[in-house]
Amino acid sequence: MFRFASFAVVVMGKEHNISEANRQLGDTTYYKRLDQDPTSDHQRLLNEKLTEMLASKEIISEDNIEYLTVANLRAGRFYLLPTIHKPGNPGRPNVSANGHPTKRISEFVDLHQILPSYVQDTTYLTKLSPCDISEETLLVSLDAMSFYTNIPHEDGIEACREERKTRETMDPLTK
Q: Is residue 59 part of a domain?
């Protein structure tokens, strides 16, 4: 491994990468093996919901539907990014959603929301000098494992509904 100012080049053996992927995907707390690819079913359900939203609620336009409908469907692709700061360099799981039915929904929501959709890297904390921090300040760091899979679905959906209600008057999509 070669280390430069703020990044590293990692050379990892194929066997280690496959073993780490199998270790993570084998955890049935977070992952379930499927007998078939559900991507086209997801697109069908999305199309039904978009049509319903356009017809009954008039909260999206036909241009929105055209944008949100993916023409060349692809299943999400799982891959790992090595976490070089942890012992054994476990992989951070990622899913490339290019061509997946939910890709454009995520972009659409991100474009129309007020709150940020991600937590920015906190490397700035290492640049603070001791005099920048008062004695009353408590610095906290966290590392979430399987973050999104640990959010209970119903609670997550309800939190989104509540957030939406609090800003309906500011959001042009609800007018």
A: yes
What are residue 106's DSSP bridge partners?
none
Mean pLDDT by 10 residues, the chain (175 residues): 57 89 91 92 90 80 87 90 82 89 84 62 58 69 66 82 72 50
Buried b (16+ CB within 10 A) or exposed e, 99-135: bbbbbbbeeeeeeeeeeeeeeeeeeeeeeeeeeeeee
- pLDDT computed for residue 127 by the predictor: 60
What is the number of structural domains in the chain?
Answer: 1
Confirm whether 2 is domain-assigned: no
Report how far residue 163's alpha carbon sits from residue 113's, in angstroms, rounded to the nearest whole number. 10
